[in-house]
Write a structure and sequence with these properties.
273 residues; alpha/beta; Rossmann fold; two-stranded antiparallel ribbon; 13 helices; globular; binds zinc ion
Length: 273
């Protein structure tokens, strides 16, 4: 997944070479009765593991510094989005064993009035509705990346994909003549990650092949009770037009509950600045 931006933020990764073990992650412990040198894991190992998970998560460059503290809450809606995110985090399993056992809900931000619906309006109504129910630039991705980083810190494997580039790459991989090797490798990462963050789901141009893929991923993760954290500029109905009805209902079903899938709208702060 090359076109998904990888982070190379060194301060977050803490990847300075450890002076104790010179980067081998093991240190001498003791000599046993036969004179063999016994080594133990170095203290840096846990720190590096977090760094690797962070690196493997494919956090988009512009969100490397996103955290819960620097999310701007300028209105009630953003305050609510923030609170839901914190609640979700608090309700999340403590570790991978617990996740394996009980699973976790999907968590999503959708629009109140989806792009697909807005595009279908006549131009006069379009701008008014768009303005009234704006869904852009309210920090959905920021919050979810911040959430992802917290989960990475807690030891979970997190993968972040961005809809358009991810779907493009999957479709390209499918056409490769390598007996499906690339395709399956990518698919396997997406299915087996503890947590999948799916940015802008439903943005890619719909095709039948993509519809099949959406359903496969959403359904397989559903069966494994592995959560998808997603955001979309579509609403709960128009998203079905983009990713297919079956995938949409599975996605939302696993996100059923008091606060797991939230409709959002607000002032576009990118325009305000
Ligand atoms: Zn070390």
């Amino acid at each position: 997944m090359n076109s998904t931006n990888n982070s190379n933020e060194t301060s977050e990764l803490g990847e300075t070479k450890c002076p104790k073990c010179y980067g081998t992650e093991v240190v001498f412990d003791y000599k046993d009765e036969n004179g063999y040198e016994i080594y133990k894991p170095c203290a840096c190992r846990e720190r590096n593991a977090w760094g690797r998970r962070f690196k493997n998560a494919l956090i988009p460059e512009e969100f490397v510094h996103a955290n819960l503290e620097n999310y701007e809450r300028e209105n009630e809606n953003q305050q609510k989005m923030f609170e839901q995110t914190v609640k979700y985090l608090e309700s999340f399993p403590d570790d991978r064993d617990e996740l394996q056992e009980v699973g976790a809900k999907n968590f999503g931000f959708t629009a109140t009035i989806g792009e697909q619906r807005i595009r279908a309006l006549n131009p006069g109504d379009r701008s008014e509705i768009k303005h009234k129910h704006n869904n852009f630039g309210i920090g959905k991705t920021h919050l979810q990346i911040a959430l992802a980083k917290q989960l990475i810190k807690q030891g979970f494997n997190v993968l972040v994909v961005s809809d358009v580039s991810f779907m493009d790459e999957m479709m390209n991989a499918k056409r490769m003549s390598d007996d499906g090797e690339s395709y399956n490798r990518m698919l396997n990462s997406v299915l087996s990650a503890d947590v999948l963050v799916w940015d802008d789901i439903g943005k890619a141009k719909p095709t039948e092949a993509k519809e099949g893929l959406y359903y496969m991923i959403v359904n397989e993760r559903y069966k494994r009770k592995r959560p998808i954290i997603f955001n979309t500029n579509e609403d709960k109905n128009t998203l079905a037009d983009r990713i297919g009805y079956a995938a949409n209902s599975r996605l939302l079903e696993r996100g059923q509950g008091e606060y797991y899938v939230m409709e959002t709208e607000g002032i576009d702060w990118r325009l305000k600045k």
